[in-house]
Every structure is written in C-alpha cells, then in structure tokens.
Design goal:
Blueprint: E1 2-3, E2 8-9, E3 14-15, E4 20-21, E5 26-27, E6 32-33, E7 37-39, E8 44-45, E9 50-51, E10 54-57, E11 62-63, E12 68-71, E13 84-87, E14 92-93, E15 98-100, E16 109-112, E17 117-118, E18 123-124, E19 129-130, E20 135-136, E21 141-142, E22 147-148, E23 153-154, E24 159-160, E25 165-166, E26 171-172, E27 177-178, E28 186-189, E29 194-198, H1 200-205, H2 210-225, H3 230-240, H4 244-254
Parallel strand pairs: 1-4, 2-5, 3-6, 4-7, 5-8, 6-9, 7-10, 8-11, 9-12, 10-13, 11-14, 12-15, 13-16, 14-17, 15-18, 16-19, 17-20, 18-21, 19-22, 20-23, 21-24, 22-25, 23-26, 24-27, 26-28
Antiparallel strand pairs: 28-29
Helix pairs in contact: 2-3, 3-4
Length: about 270
C-alpha cells in the first residue's frame, strides 16, 4: 500500500493493501478502494463509492456516492482474466454510475478520456473506448466494445449497442437506441436512432467558422442524395473535398467497422 502523506482518508473508509493513493486525495466514509487501484493526485472518492479491480483514476477526478468503478464485466464470456479500467483526468463520475474493466477478447482495457461527465446511473461497459469531454446523461447505457469520439453527448435514457462507433462531436438525443455507427458531427434522434442532420449547435459552440459549417452541410447533402451507395458517396467526399471536417467524416465512414451506418434520411 502507498498512501501519500497529504491524502485524507476517512477513518471509516476501507483502503485495501496494495492500493496507491496520490497526493491530495480525499476518500470519504464507507468508501472502498481495492488492492489494485491507483488514484492520481487530488482524486476525490466520496462516501459509499467503490473503486476496485485493476483501475487507474486520473488526477482531479471526482467519484460520487454509490458509484461502482472497476468491477468485472457483465459478459458471460469473462472468466476472471486480469483486465483494466483507465479513467482520465478531471472526470466527474456521478451517483450510482458503473464502469467495468475490459475483457481478454476485447483488448483488455476499458478507457475513459479526460474531462468526461458520467451522470447518475450511467453505465460504461467492458472494452468501451470513451474520448475526451464526453457527456453521458442520466441512465445512459454504453454497451461493450463501443467507441465514442471526443466531445460526444449521449442524451438521457439512451442506449448504444455493442461495437457501435460514434464519431467526434456527434450528439444522441434522449431516449434513443443506437444500433449502427454515427458519423462525426451527426445528430441522432427518435426511439430507434435516426440520423437527422448535423450537430450544428455543438459545432458553433466549438467555434467552427461559417465556411466549415457550410462545407459540412454540403457533405451531408452529398451523403443523403448523391448517386451510388453510401460508401461510394463517402469516397467521393474523400476525393473531392479539401475541408478537414468533411474528410474526417469520409475517413470515418471508410474505416473498418463492425456495424453498418446510420444514413441520412433519404439515403441508401
């Protein structure tokens, strides 16, 4: 066990031998820190939270009461293999959220980036790869092997099917089931997850200029209405567009996927 002398551990907390507690950490009453857990500097684990498994928590992350971080996967194929969970810096893991370690068949690591907000009751399944500045609203369910790019927002009570990829800057509306890949900057809504445009609000908030947004709108129309298959249209964008944002969408579509894609309304 290694506990930095500046850390504050409540007398009613349980810190198991082998845990590493960084400088300035705070661990509240009735919290449990398992033997293979590493807490970076200034991590806060509030009362009744559980951090267990082979888990690394980045600096200044806060874990709220009754969250369970680093438990074994909810996967019947898991048979006790030694797998990890890595959470980045400055994350907020709210009450009753659950984050699981990886599986041998999925690469062995579940990863959450920096500055993420995982709200009450949300779940991050085994082997998921979550980018930076991602927001999972209350009771979101992220299945195993899902990849969420940076700046993705998933609305409350939504679910992302296993192996789905959601591209950079996309937004998923509330009470939505997503079963296919979502292009970067896409806007998805409706109960069964329909691609219904671009996340224009998010683009403007991130300072994308008028020319960039105009290029994205034109690209979206190409994906929706041009001749050929969806992949043919993406190849056309990759060949003809000089916009980095458009090329990001094209490259995403043309890269390896284990699912099909949500396509624009009217697209094939």
């Amino acid at each position: 066990m290694s506990i930095d002398p500046t850390a504050r551990i409540h007398a009613l907390a349980v810190v198991e031998p082998g845990a590493v507690i960084g400088a300035g950490c705070e661990v509240g009453p009735f919290a449990l820190i398992g033997p293979e857990v590493t807490l970076g500097a200034k991590v806060t684990v509030k009362s009744h939270a559980v951090v267990t498994g082979w888990t690394e928590i980045g600096d200044e992350t806060v874990i709220f009461p009754f969250a369970t971080v680093g438990e074994v996967p909810q996967d019947l194929k898991y048979h006790g293999e030694h797998t990890r969970l890595i959470v980045g810096q400055r994350c907020r893991i709210r009450e009753a959220a659950t984050l699981n370690t990886g599986t041998e068949g999925g690469g062995g690591v579940t990863r959450v980036g920096d500055d993420c907000l995982i709200m009450t009751g949300a779940h991050v399944g085994h082997d998921a790869q979550i980018g930076d500045r991602v927001i999972l609203v209350n009771n979101v369910a992220i299945a195993g092997h899902v990849t969420l790019g940076d700046d993705v927002i998933v609305g409350g009570l939504s679910g992302i099917h296993q192996w789905v990829r959601v591209g950079h800057g996309a937004i998923i509306g509330a009470v939505t089931m997503v079963t296919n890949d979502v292009i970067p900057y896409g806007l998805v809504q409706a109960p069964r997850g329909e691609l219904d445009g671009l996340n224009l609000v998010g683009l403007k908030r991130r300072g994308v200029d008028r020319a960039g947004i105009t290029a994205l709108r034109a690209a979206y129309q190409t994906l929706a209405q041009e001749d050929g298959s969806f992949l043919d249209r993406a190849r056309k964008l990759a060949e003809e567009s000089d916009s980095p944002l458009v090329r990001e969408i094209a490259d995403f579509i043309l890269s390896k996927s284990d699912r099909s894609f949500l396509t624009p309304k009217g697209g094939r």
